[in-house]
Design brief:
Layout: E1 3-10, E2 23-30, E3 35-39, H1 46-53, E4 61-66, H2 76-83, E5 86-89, H3 101-106, H4 115-123, H5 128-137, H6 153-162, E6 171-175, H7 183-200, E7 203-207, H8 211-217, E8 220-225, E9 228-234, H9 240-246, H10 251-255
The protein binds adenosine-5'-triphosphate and magnesium ion.
């Protein structure tokens, strides 16, 4: 799904009146099937940008276009239908505690199901094979019938990602998919996510704190700071100087982002900035 933001800004309903918007007016074009990572220090507006693209937060000014439509001009039912064609993975997936993993993963398919089918799936999970396949991508196939509240935070996060593979969506919006994962799991999970998105020709926008992961897996990087667009560049043009400016006075957030694995023969991996071109 093609995305276009035209001088679009965003303000949260609960924001302090008169304060700066969470997202200043910005232009952004993302082609169908393109992948991009959004980086920037905490509070930069990364999640807000995803909410704007997911049509859960209307632009406070400017315009969002998805494909050929302005979602906020659509009648309510059509807006709901459009939201069903987007997949938003929040940082902490909202999983009912007593639910089985299989049901939680199949919930990704709900927008494609009729009412009766979706109600029936709560009691008798159908589509076991696709659920198992989706979990397998994230190394969780042995958890198919486990209860969600018996899983670790990292396992729940990966279930949130596995849901995308069942969703009838052409746009995946993924917020901090690796925040609860260790480096080995992070590498496996981001590889699976990006690989599956590429195979399906899905448009993928992911926010990431791990700058090294963003540079390694995404061809285009958007940098946000203080709610404003700092840069929007092909990965090869994201220099250490740019990253240093993006994270100025917040260096701990950049230097905390170490490479996923130390290169052969090196004990301590250098900071991500050393890996930038
Ligand atoms: N629900 C909300 N109500 C009011 N203000 C909000 C809300 N959510 C976010 N904000 C404000 O919007 C700004 C951007 O927040 P956002 O969550 O988009 O940042 P972020 O880049 O995702 O940060 P992080 O890396 O910590 O997740 C912040 O100043 C934040 O305080
Ligand atoms: Mg966030």
């Amino acid at each position: 799904m093609r995305i276009e933001l035209l001088a679009a800004a965003a303000r949260h309903p609960a924001a302090r009146p008169g304060g700066a918007p969470a997202l200043q007016p910005l232009d952004l074009q993302v082609a169908e099937g393109e992948h991009l990572a959004v980086i920037g220090p905490s509070g930069a507006g990364k999640t807000t940008l995803l909410q704007l693209l997911a049509c859960t937060l209307p632009p406070s000014q400017g315009q969002l276009r998805l494909g050929d439509t302005d979602p906020w001009q659509l009648p309510r039912r059509q807006l709901q239908a459009l939201r069903g064609r987007l997949f938003l993975a929040p940082q902490v997936p909202p999983l009912p505690p007593r639910q089985r993993v299989v049901t939680a993963v199949l919930a990704g398919r709900l927008p494609a199901m009729g009412l009766w089918e979706s109600l029936a799936s709560l009691f008798r999970p159908t589509l076991l094979e696709p659920a198992w396949q989706a979990l397998r991508q994230f190394d969780l196939e042995d958890k198919l019938f486990e209860r969600v509240d018996r899983l670790s935070g990292g396992e729940r996060q990966r279930i949130g990602l596995a849901r995308a593979l069942l969703a009838p969506a052409r746009l995946w919006l993924v917020d901090e998919p690796l925040s609860a994962l260790d480096p080995t799991r992070s590498k496996q999970a981001i590889g699976a996510l990006v690989g599956q998105a590429r195979q399906r020709g899905v448009t993928l926008v992911t926010t990431l704190h791990q700058v090294d992961v963003a540079l390694a897996h995404f061809p285009r990087i958007v940098g946000l700071r203080d709610g404003a667009l700092a840069f929007d560049l092909p990965t090869a043009e994201v220099s250490p100087e740019r990253l240093a400016r993006l994270y100025a006075q917040r260096e701990d957030e950049l230097h905390g982002a170490l490479p996923l694995a130390a290169p052969e023969g090196r004990e301590t991996p250098p900071p991500a900035v050393m890996h930038c071109r």
